[in-house]
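Hi L.,

As promised, Fibronectin type-III domain-containing protein:
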Amino acid sequence: MLDLRSIGVADQPIIVDKSPPIAGEVLDGPLGGVDLMYTKDFDSLCSNWQHFYDPESGISTYMLGVTSEYNVNITDIANLTEISSKQHKTCVDIDPEHALEHQKTYYTIVWAYNGAIKQQKVVSISNGVTVDLTEPVSGEVIDGVEENFSDLQFSPNPAKLGAQWKDYSDPESDINQYEIQVQVASNNTNDFEVIRDWVVFSNDTRDVEWVNFHLHHKDHVKIQLKTTNGALNSVTSDTDGFVVDLTPPVLLSLGDGTMLHQDKTYQSSVTSISSAFQFIDEESGLDHFKIQIYQLRDGIRSQIIPDIHGDWMDIGNNITRTSYTLEGLTLHQGALYSTRVGAVNKAGFVAAFETDGVIVDTTPPIIHWLHVGTLASGLEKKVDGFVWQADTSGIKVAWDADDHQSGIVGYRVAVGTTKGGSDVMDWTRYKSETDVYISDLSLPLTDIVTKSPVYYVSLMGDNGAGQESTIITSTPIVVVNEDKPGIVIDGAVGTDNLDLLILDDDTDYQLHPTVVTVQFDGFESHLHGVMEYKWAVGTTPGGEDVMSFIPYGLIHSEEVSVKGNGITSSGYAQANLDLKSGVTYYSTVRAITNVGSVLESVSDGFTVDTSPPIISLDR
């Protein structure tokens, strides 16, 4: 009989361990060491556990089940499942017939077995997790951290951005946390990319602001807010975004006064200041305007509106306005007032520009004199209180005026048949001229006896502040015919009765070779009067080779009313001269006016014929 044997060694020692493991704690939720009070899932339940141990034989395995009651002996939701001793968290799939119900609480049971040959066990149960299948209730999230929960549309800051939110809630599991993500699209487009991924904030946070970004002009920034409840259900909300605007508004026009592109230098008002302006902002648009008003008086410059230096006066958000007038001021004669206009865009950038100012001038222009019938500074010639002229289509006018404050910028002139009247020519503007010829008029002749009609020129001046002078009216103007040369005929027929002198029998031939007789009529100068007559005889029209011009041998007719209060306009002249037969002679009569002008007429000539007729007989 053989006694054959072999010896083998077991894979592990037999440990005699008569004590059960030490129980740990079971936590609800998939995160190790974190006990959740709520879950969002209906088809699975997660749990984690810790601090199970056995000092003698160690933990060899776990058994895990799910119950709807706080009882380790009930596993009505999920039966016990073996779990490796190296695993400390798991998620158990729930059969559809045992699907977890909203707002109900479920518990996880964990059995821990040691490694003894006769295994001992210990059990722990979680404190339960309540099912919340709904998302948080969304509230409102906006860009920026402005007061009164005001949404930021544009930002002037390339480093700072933020968001604020309100009215997020969850009636079942409360809000657990918030997360923020920042997205940017360049050049004001919608091609967004993430520049800061999700950052977690506690559930009591209501706003967040960063100052460490590097944004660019026209960046379109959008912020996402993820709100997570206690069951880890979340809802994501986007702001409407804002645009980064790093440029101020652009000035198109600025000036004193109320009209664009018409900058005033002077004004007469002492109670108001006006400015005209135009700005644009293509990125964020204009938001509102504000002003400051400065006074320069006696060499001292000061801000008068608002009265606190550096403050601004807001004039409202009517971004279409192009002018503003501030009333109720007390301004001073001779002082200069300028307006500083600030245009604020929706990003908050300010473009501020100041007008060159307007000087207050409350005094009107002064007109020193007004003359008619002359240009430049010529003296006015008056006869019996009237200025006489022979021009029926125009009037010469000259004047002198000044304004030492704002200067004279123009004049207005009118012509009428009464003082200050404009029935002949309505008020017409002239620039800086101080003498003009008013043309294109129609001036009927004045009746010398009744002195009707007579004409008046009226003048007023406008200074740079818009002040008008008083109206100055000229000396009345009498319009008469122009100087007119008369008619000259040869011969003495009709000269025996000067009272009935009629020039209708012109002599073409005469017998007498020793005498020349000439008759004249119609020489008139209403304007100046004829002061002298001279006459001459020549063998050519206007010639004086037979007799030079002399004032002698002239006899004038008697006239009741002589034009221009001069010498009468008709008469005859006679002289003894040595004439030659067969030669034609011409007589010239000159009327010389009181101003030296010459009115001249020539006869058509006569021929001396001293030979008798020749009679011839035909036989």
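The chain has a mean pLDDT of 92.

Thanks again for sending the construct details.

K.
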